[in-house]
Amino acid sequence: MPAAPPIVDLRRLLAERFPRAHAPAAPSRPSGQSIGIPQLDSLLGGGLLHGGITELVGSGNGSGSAQVLHCLLRQVADSGRFLALVDGADSFDVDAAEAEVLARLLWVRCCKTDEALKATDLLLRDRNIPLVVLDLKLNPEHELRRIASSIWFRFGRLVEHHGTTLLVITPQSMVGAADLRVQVESRLDLKSVAAGPAVVVDGLQFQMLRAMVEGGGNERREAG
User: Fold this and answer.
1) Phi, psi torsion values for 132, nearest 5 degrees
2) Percentages (nearest 5) of helix, strand, coil residues in the chain
3) CA-CA distance, 173 to 146, in Å (whole number)?
4) What is the largest CA-CA distance in the chain?
5) E strands, 96-203, in order
6) Per residue in 174-216, pLDDT tens?
7) Which end of the chain is more exposed for a tag (fewer CB within 10 A), N or C?
8) In 10 A of CB 110, how many CB atoms?
9) CA 72 to CA 51: how far, in whole Å?
C-alpha cells in the first residue's frame, strides 16, 4: 500500500489545481444599515459598518449632519428595524420626523455629554439593540474635550463583540476608535434650502477621512 503523501505536497497540489481558493482574500468590511443617501452609502461600502463605529463629522452649523440623521431614520423605518438615538444635547427635531419613523425610534434625551456616554454604554451592552446613534454635534466643546480616549475603545470592543452598528455624530474628528470617519458639508444657499429636504440632501458633499480594514492576524489598520 503506497504511503500517504506528505501534507505539504497535498497543499501544493491543491493550490495548483484550485488557485482561486488559495488566493489571499481582499480586505473587506461587512456593511450594516444603509443610510438612504446613495453617494454616502457608496462611500461607506454599502452603509454603516456592522460591528464597528462610524463617525460622521459635521463642522459648523448647517453642515448637513441633521439631514443625514433623518435620512437614516426613514431608511430604518422603511426596513422595519429599530434605532436608538442618544441625543447628547436634547436637540432632535421631533416635528421634522414622520409618525411611522418615530414609532421605530428609541429617543434617549440627554443634556450633558457624560449622560450621553453613559446611556450609550448601556445600550451597547444590550444585544436587543442592533443600531445606535450617538449625536454629540451640539454638545459644548469643553465637555467633548474631557472625553477619555478609553471610552471610545471600550465602545469599539462592545460593538465588535455584540455585532452592533454605532454611528457617532461629532463637530470635529474625535472618536479615536472609529473604523470609518466621514465628513459632511453643505454648500447650499438659503434659497436652495427653502426648496425642500430632497434638494438639501442632493447638495450634501461627503469626504472619507478614515477607513480601517482587517489586516493579517485580524488586526485593524488604516487604509490609504
Assistant:
1) -130, 135
2) 40, 20, 40
3) 14
4) 86
5) 105-109, 131-135, 165-170, 180-186
6) 999 999 999 999 876 555 555 556 667 888 999 999 987 554 4
7) N
8) 21
9) 17
The three grid cell numbers given for residue 96, joined into one nine-digit string:
421634522
Q: Is the dihedral of CA 112, 117, 118, 123 positive or negative?
A: positive
Portion of the chain with pLDDT greater than 90, in percent? 66
Q: How far, in Å, CA of 31 to CA of 115, rounded? A: 29
* 69-93 residue pLDDT tens: 999 999 999 999 999 999 999 999 9
- Which residue has 419613523 as its cell numbers? 101
Number of other CB atoms surrounding residue 214 within 10 Å: 14
Specify the pairing of strand 220-222 against strand 204-214.
Answer: antiparallel
What span, in angstroms and rounded, lies between the C-alpha atoms of 47 and 69? 13
The three grid cell numbers given for residue 14, joined into one nine-digit string: 491543491
Residue among 97, 134, 103, 102 at smallest CA distance from 116: 134
